[in-house]
Amino acid sequence: MDxxxxxxxxxxxxxxxTFIRENLPADIRDRMKLGHPPRKEDTVRWQRxxxxxGWAAYSWPKEWGGPGWTAIQKMIFLEENLMAPxxxxxxxxxxxxxxxxxxxxxxxxxxxxxxxxxxxxDWWCQGFSExxxxxxxxxxxxxxxxxxxxxxINGQKIWTSTAQYAxxxxxxxxxxxxxxxxQEGISFLLVDFxxxxxxxxxxxxxxxxxxxxxxxxxxxxxxVENLVHVENKGWDVAKYLxxxxxxxxxxxxxxxxxxxxxxxxxxxxxxxxxxxIDDQTFRQRVAQLQVDIKALEMTxxxxxxxxxxAKGAGRPDPLxxxxxxxxxxxxxATTELAVDVAGPMATPIWAEELAAMNEPDDMLEAxxxxxxxxxxxxxxxxxxxxxxxxxxxxTKAVLGL
Length: 401
Ligand SMILES: Cc1cc2nc3c(=O)[nH]c(=O)nc-3n(C[C@H](O)[C@H](O)[C@H](O)COP(=O)(O)OP(=O)(O)OC[C@H]3O[C@@H](n4cnc5c(N)ncnc54)[C@H](O)[C@@H]3O)c2cc1C
Hints:
The protein is an alpha+beta fold. It folds into three domains: 7-89, Butyryl-Coa Dehydrogenase, subunit A, domain 1 (Orthogonal Bundle); 124-232, Butyryl-CoA Dehydrogenase, subunit A, domain 2, CATH 2.40.110.10; 246-398, Butyryl-CoA Dehydrogenase, subunit A, domain 3 (Up-down Bundle).
């Protein structure tokens, strides 16, 4: 297998890079260059710019407003976007809901929700996990009972990312508590977050940010037209969604961007009276990370293009677990590098003091952001299916043990 990009793919990378450079608003780029996560308005603004270009729904077919790219083009686009650094496209809208509706939705659901999801007119969230159902998702208990032309939802979800911003949520509910197998009694509902009975309670993360939430559903009435696919067949929809969620899961562009940021900072900080960038041990560590990133990039191209050729989309590819495990290990290693370079500046507490400063200090701000990003990315080996679960998948489906 030839692992080099074709001339067309190299030209495509240049086209994407140029577009992002010329169109990413400077204020968003400058904040993100210092290592800050994008704010809600940054994500919305950037996704709308991309949507105008026809790139926001990057993985959808042309018929539904996507660019119709190959798997390699999608990878290149995601990486360039992360390296810019630009806000990531909202995965709940584009990677999760979009493909699910294209595959299972009614015409009315597609027409109503897809264009708005691409343009981020609706902010979606994912209501899957519960206090007793994470890795073992099929044990979920939140119930939906049919009452005329509505379902009535009662129960609790947890770890619902960005629910505080959400207009809509796709929720897994139990519609048949007596089903023979647990997986058989689950349905997939689209819930308008303005419906009475929904309470969102924040969970503050270790970096001090508000990203996660508990969501309580008390007699929440959802029209039956918001059922996706068939009642009690929501597990098929969830499996399809989780297969797509793995697209771009390695987030290599983010690891590359973190290494580049650490190298830039290492030019400015001193170690033993010399710039840290001249330190041999530091240089070896950077080189090792760059080699690991390159190796994973090769693996990613191999896995993704083989999967694309096999037309296996929709069924989770067990090999994507390799990308998840190694990709998140690298994310954690590269954010750790950034923290080590920042040294005593790497403490999130600086954020409040920074706000009170007259003169902005980019080094302090980048140091503080590096700590926040390091802490947040501890969660990368948990969300999207924990790394232990990915290793279970690999031992079974790939190694056949
Ligand atoms: C930052 C973040 C964002 C998230 N966003 C969302 C979201 O938007 N929507 C949503 O629905 N969920 C979300 N989640 C939840 C996420 O999907 C779950 O945390 C994850 O599936 C693990 O479930 P759990 O937390 O219940 O842990 P558990 O499943 O209870 O696992 C606890 C520990 O046991 C290990 N373990 C469990 N089972 C096995 C096994 N069979 N073999 C070996 N080890 C095992 C796990 O690897 C883990 O280390 C988010 C989580 C985080 C951290």
